[in-house]
Structures are given as structure tokens and as C-alpha cells.
Design brief:
Layout (H helix, E strand, L loop, with lengths): L1 E4 L4 H7 L1 H13 L2 E3 L4 H10 L4 E5 L3 H13 L3 E5 L9 E3 L9 E5 L6 H17 L2
Parallel strand pairs: 1-2, 1-3
Antiparallel strand pairs: 3-6, 4-5, 4-6
Helix pairs in contact: 1-2, 2-5, 3-4
Length: about 130
């Protein structure tokens, strides 16, 4: 499987420290390739086209992904975000049209799965929620 992501960016490294590096290590181990394009729109285009199996978003902005997540859904891909009813649970849901406003997401190409990436994203969200308690 191929993953595209900008994680861990500088702000994630500053906030999560060595945990971010361990999470990135899990991603590198689980995927054939991990590419860092550093463009949310480009990452979504690659995922919608099936050139990438998944794209991981951490600390993303709506304007980087709003159009791309719509295109991804139209071609049969999934845009998964933390469950709004229990964000710290690590559970991801296909949350509907406003999901592009969530700073954490996993884009999955049509017909593909990304269980390790989903688990890593759930871990990130849970750890960030614990920081706010």
C-alpha cells in the first residue's frame, strides 16, 4: 500500500515529540511507500485517482481539503474523521458534508483499506484529546 501524508509536520513534532516519530515509524513499517507531498489537495487527488491507497491528515485546514474530499467521495472513496460523539475514542466515521472542517482525517481510495493508518490516526486524536483534559 501507498500512503501520502504531511505527518509529522513541525507542529506535530513539537506537540507530540517522540510519540510522533514512533507513529510515523508504524506508518513506514505498514506501507510499501510513504510519500510526503506536503499538499493536502494533491494528496487527495492522488488518492481519488487511486495512485495512492490512503492519505492521512493531521492539523489540516478546511481550504486544503474541501474540494478534494468531495471529489474523493464522488469516485467512491471514503473521507473518515473522528467520531463527533466520542472524539477521543479513536473511532473513525464517514461523517458527512461538514467533515472537511475537521483537522484530522483519513482519505481512503475506492476499494482500499488502511487499518494501520486508521489506528495511528485514532491514537493521535486520543492523545490530543487527553492533552486537553
Amino acid at each position: 500500500q501507498n500512503l501520502v501524508t504531511s505527518y509529522p509536520a513541525g507542529e506535530a513534532l513539537a506537540r507530540e515529540g517522540e510519540d510522533a516519530l514512533r507513529r510515523f515509524g508504524r506508518l513506514v513499517t505498514a506501507h510499501a511507500t510513504v510519500r510526503r507531498t506536503v499538499s493536502g489537495a494533491l494528496e487527495l487527488a492522488h488518492t481519488a485517482a487511486g495512485w495512492a491507497d490512503a492519505a492521512l491528515y493531521v492539523d489540516t485546514k478546511p481550504w486544503d481539503v474541501a474540494a478534494g474530499q468531495l471529489i474523493l467521495r464522488r469516485v467512491g472513496g471514503r473521507w473518515l474523521t473522528p467520531d463527533p460523539a466520542a472524539p477521543s475514542s479513536g473511532r473513525l466515521v464517514d461523517d458527512g458534508p461538514r467533515a472537511h472542517t475537521c483537522p484530522f482525517a483519513l482519505a481512503v481510495a475506492p476499494g482500499r483499506e488502511a487499518p494501520t493508518t486508521a489506528a495511528v490516526l485514532g491514537d493521535i486524536v486520543a492523545s490530543r484529546a487527553a492533552d486537553h483534559v
